[in-house]
Amino acid sequence: MSVIKGIKGVKDLLPEETPRWRFIEESARRWATRYGFHELRIPIFEVTTLFARSIGASTDIVEKEMYTFQDRDGTSLTLRPEGTAGTVRAYIEHNRGAIPVPQKYFYTGPMFRHERPQAGRLRQFHQFGVESYGMADPHADIEVIALLWRILNNLGLPSLTLEINNLGQTADRDAYRPILIAYLKEHETGLCGNCKHRIAANPLRVLDCKVPECRTITEPAPRLSDFLSDNARSYFAHVLAGLEAIKIPYTLNHRLVRGLDYYNLTTFEVTATNLGAQNAVGAGGRYDGLVETLGGASTPAVGFAVGLERIAMLLPDSHKSIVATDATVYVAGFGLKGSVAGLTALEELRVSGISAVSDFRSTTLKAHLRQADRLRCQFALLLGDDEVAKGVAVLRNMESKAQHNVLLSALSLQVKPLLSPS
RNA sequence: GUGGGUGUAGCUCAGUUGGUUAGAGCGCCGGAUUGUGGAUCCGGAGGUCGCGGGUUCGAAACCCGUCAUCCACCCCA
Predict the structure, then answer these.
(1) Phi, psi at A165, each rounded to 5°
(2) Does strand B come within 7 Å of the CB of A193?
(3) For the domain that residue A38 is a member of, what is the CATH number?
(4) Residues A284 and A334 in one domain
(5) For strand B, which residues in window 139-178 of chain A come within 7 Å by CB?
(6) Nucleotides of B under 7 A from a protein CB
(7) What is the mean pLDDT of chain A?
(8) 0.90 surpassed by complex ipTM
(9) For A86-133, what is each residue's pLDDT tens digit?
(10) Parent domain of A31
């Protein structure tokens, strides 16, 4: 019989890892809530056209990375590759724009992209993201960036850099693009093969190429910042001034271009070293046109998403085992009467609020104590036939080896005070 | 989709120019200790050498294929 294995790029999170993940998720939740964001739970699959329309039909995600399948009636459905599209869809569908207070949401959960797995990249991966609707004000951008920075910084992640850029409005980019293309074509021979391709496919991406030759060529290239409207310019200036006012350190990066079609104006990314080639921990930006694109009323919006796997990779050891565990009692019931009494003792302790475990395979006291040790229980409750005959049990402190008799008739009552550290 | 690295015990890894019965450390089980864990000592179990072909008197090793995994490109969180 062949063994069925997990899918490529889809990982199990084993119990050794889940406390760190809970720590990360709870920390992000707490910060988002503190910033006035509310949790939104959206489905992990949607109609395919939602993603095609929002992310951009010619992006890699839509062209070759989506998990798409047919519903029974033939409708094309897709496992979500990101969270913004579904959030916007829900925002429109439930007419949240009619609510007279800004709608600020956060979400977390799995995303799916069919890519070759590598360090920091999986086919099922997890994101935490926020979206802020209705405020065409630099303060909304600042708030979102501040939240992103606070979450990551508070987790103690090392060597973070916040990079920020101004993409301008669509019209600004439309004016700039042909100028850039003309420049790139002039210098095409010196560019790497990928960039030669990019000139036609996505010229702005050439600016973000890692190949040194490409970077030297694009260094004196015309810059988008010279083609921005006064509005775009002053908007961005306000964002930067706000970040300075609240002491969020940023680096301007005129090469920073986001991959998804819907971004405009402010765009940002937090990167870290020691992450391998995929060094972006989180990224986001403003996407004022998206709600309208998806059939809603024109609505300004800004948001970000962070990659939970990447955060987990960066999380320092000091933050990994922070989960404080209550004292746990190992119940060692052995012998004919002892093992029966052990079962009732286990249940009584648990019902009274005490964490209690046992290994039912162990039949001797020695085996029980060995398991108590391995399970790192601070206490063991010894319960053999002799104890049962006397109506008592022995509570042993595993570290100090001190032992106390407790009455079975008042078990939890007598055990409880002995558990608290003296 | 493209390129490269790695697949030997539960884990981390040795394994000579191809040569008898494939090893170590850690872990696991048992005993020393018949009702008291960890430490020590002694003993023991555990392997389709990823899989399938091929070369050879002989393959864990060489060749071909294949799968898995990791890393990088592309792209992205």
Answers:
(1) -150, 165
(2) no
(3) 3.30.930.10
(4) no
(5) none
(6) 1-3, 28, 30, 35-38, 68-77
(7) 91
(8) no
(9) 999 999 999 999 999 999 999 999 999 999 999 999 999 999 999 999
(10) 18-169+229-319
**Residue A119 Cβ under 7 A from any strand B atom:** yes
Flag whether pLDDT at A320 surpasses 60: no
A258: nearest nucleotide, CA–C1' criterion: B76
Claim to verify: residue A313 and residue A240 sit in the same structural domain: yes
Q: How confident is the model at residue A319 (pLDDT cuts 50, 70, 90)?
A: low
Nucleotide nearest A260, CA–C1', reads B76
Starting at the edge strand that comes first in sequence, how are the strands of the sheet with A67-70 ordered?
Answer: A45-47, A76-79, A67-70
A307/A352 same-domain check: no
Closest nucleotide to A335, Cα to C1': B35
Asked whether residue A120, judged by its CB, lies under 7 Å from any atom of the DNA or RNA strand B, the reply is yes
How does pLDDT run across A169-227, given as a tens digit for each residue? 888 888 888 888 888 888 888 888 788 888 887 788 888 887 778 888 888 888 888 88
Please tell me whether residues A293 and A256 are part of one structural domain. yes
- The confidence score (pLDDT) of residue A322 equals 52
Does A239 share its domain with A310?
A: yes
**A273 lies in the same domain as A294:** yes
Q: What is the DSSP letter of A226?
A: G
Whether nucleic acid strand B comes within 7 Å of the CB of A125, the answer is yes
Q: Point out which residues pair with A266 in neighbouring strands.
A: A166
Q: Looking at A260-391, which runs of residues are DSSP E strands?
A: 264-272, 280-286, 301-307, 328-333, 355-357, 379-383
The whole-number pLDDT of residue A286 equals 95
Closest residue to B36 measured CA to C1′: A366
Q: How far apart are CA A384 and CA A389, in angstroms?
A: 9
- A258 CA from B76 C1′ (Å): 9
- pLDDT tens profile A157-172: 988 999 999 999 888 8
Q: Based on the domain organization, do A337 and A366 belong to the same domain?
A: yes
Residue A417 C-alpha from the chain's centroid: 40
Tell whether A184 is covered by a domain.
Answer: no
The CATH number given to whatever domain includes residue A351 is 3.40.50.800
Q: Does residue A335 approach strand B to less than 7 Å at its CB?
A: yes
End residue of a domain, out of A255, A286, A319: A319
- Is A422 a residue whose pLDDT tops 60? no
- Burial (0-12, 13-18, 19+ Cβ within 10 Å), A327: middle
% of chain A surpassing 70 pLDDT: 97
Domain boundary among A297, A319, A341: A319
Q: Are residues A234 and A134 in the same domain?
A: yes
pLDDT digits (tens, 9 = 90+) for A58-97: 788 888 899 999 999 999 999 999 999 999 999 999 999 9
Asked, for residue A202, whether it belongs to a domain, the answer is no
Strand B reaches within 7 A of the A283 CB: yes
What tokens were used for A371? 């398991």
What is the domain count for chain A? 2
Q: Nearest nucleotide by C1' from A9 CA?
A: B69
Q: For residue A183, give Cα distances in angstroms to A219, A280, A422.
A: 11, 29, 75
